[in-house]
Amino acid sequence: MTEQALLENKLIVFQIEQREYAISVQMVGSIEKLLPITRVPSTVDFIIGVINLRGVVTPVVDLKQRFYGKETIFTNDTRILVVHMEELTIGVIVDEANDVVDIDPTFIEQPPETIDSTVDAPFIDGVVRHEDRLLILVDLENALEMDALKAGERKNG
Predict the structure, then answer these.
(1) How many domains are contained in the chain?
(2) How far apart, in Å, are the Cα atoms of 98 and each of 12, 46, 48, 119, 145?
(3) Is the Cβ–Cβ distance between 58 and 88 less than 8 Å?
(4) In whole angstroms, what is the distance from residue 25 CA to residue 113 CA?
């Protein structure tokens, strides 16, 4: 199996509100401990500010705010997933990020309508069973409203 094919079958698992979510490892540049966040006024609620990531000003979004309407309470386990989407690099705040799993793409299923009524269905790509866990696959492009982020980058950058 090629390295590309192996990467396509790997997911980064993270937690929000004690639920397990996942995105492709190919989207994630790094996982960082919490860095100082500079708040930016006049942005959508879930864009909480910017960080200085190795000399690059990077917007940061709070997925808990986006999914559940409440801010993440920062702990020692809080992580920033640095993701690359389209032309943007974005920091995504999650409660924890502590696992990379290999999945069989044939195990990905459409999410049941009742899986999580607090998270809008357009944010969910599917559900995958992995060992004794059920992982919710997140569609970050829809969840983060890429147009809003691009507009914010133009205003701030």
Answers:
(1) 1
(2) 8, 23, 23, 22, 25
(3) no
(4) 26
First and final CA of the chain: distance in angstroms? 41
Summarize pLDDT for 78-117 with one digit per residue, the tens.
999 999 987 889 999 999 998 999 988 888 888 766 555 5
- Domain range for 149 is 3-156
Would you call 117 exposed, middle or buried from its count of C-beta atoms within 10 A (0-12, 13-18, 19+)? exposed
Q: Is the torsion defined by CA of 45, 63, 17, 37 positive or negative?
A: negative
Sheet arrangement for strand 56-62: 28-33, 79-85, 88-94, 56-62, 47-53
Whole-prediction pTM value? 0.82
List the CATH number of the domain containing 27: 2.40.50.180
25: Cβ–Cβ under 8 A, 6 or more apart, which residues? 7, 10, 11, 12, 100
| Ramachandran angles phi, psi of 13, nearest 5° | -100, 135
CA distance 145 to 61: 11
Bigger pLDDT: 34 or 149?
Answer: 34
